[in-house]
Amino acid sequence: MKATRDSTSQGASRKVRAQPVSPTELVEDVQGHLAEVGGLKPATFESFCDIWHLFARFCEQGLGLTDADEVTKDDVVAFLVAPRAQGGELADASRHFRRGAVRFLYRRGRKLGLVSGDPTLDVILPKRPVLSTRPLTDDESELCRLCALGTMSDLRLPLVWALAEATARISEIPNVRVRDLDTAARVVFLAGGARTDPRWAPMTDWASAQLRRRLTTPELPRDPGSLVVPWRPKITKRPGNAATMAVIEVLRTAGIHGDPSVRPTSVTAWAGRRLLLRGFRIEEVACALGCRSLDRTAHLIGLDWRNPPQDGPA
Q: Which residues contact 80 (CB under 8 A, 6 or more apart)?
């Protein structure tokens, strides 16, 4: 029996009616259900919602489909290969993320009795290449510092870069508050995340100078609970994405973002390698980076323990 939508009930309890569920209705019901019961991290939920609404418009306005159960594998493929609104093809990682979002939409829709199938099941994408991330070189790091200071009146980029130099991951940067800074001891408290442990992380000289500027800028709040990075109003809902784009903006300005081995974690990798070259033991570097594995630490900072680096610290 074809799945149908009840216009009055919410959640999994629904009445059957003759009218099929449109892609937009499917999105709205699944989104409303998840907003009520949870099940996804806030950032993932917001990203999925954006993709779902884009998918619904693509199906209805682009393909003329009014029944979510009539969406086929070919329709999903067409959505995955469609160019961005601003032009340009989607990266492979973005296609995988889109497919995952649509698959989650239909999986949850089936549980709610909204749809009967899943058009993503036979959609095959190329395997995502496993690319290693290399640490920045000292010269690249110095260039990125200069690029982050491009506008002295805007502290956003230098503060993000300073926290990255202090080993903060993208997921940790948005959560650092004024109370977490100890510029006298030149350390910052990082709360950790899914893959990192909480820790007091060391600041570089440059990072310490930028974070002191943050504490002495009259225009910015200095109460202990204030966020260190002054995010722009339009992006405060997704500070994780904003942190990523801030680091990428610096890398792009420095002209090294085109290197596939250079990513936001290249800054963290540089910071960890710098500690190693200063004489820290690998387990001390792991603690500073919040890593839970020595193997993971060595991989991150590009350390081959059989051929340790011989050059000195920056």
A: 90, 95, 98, 99, 123, 125
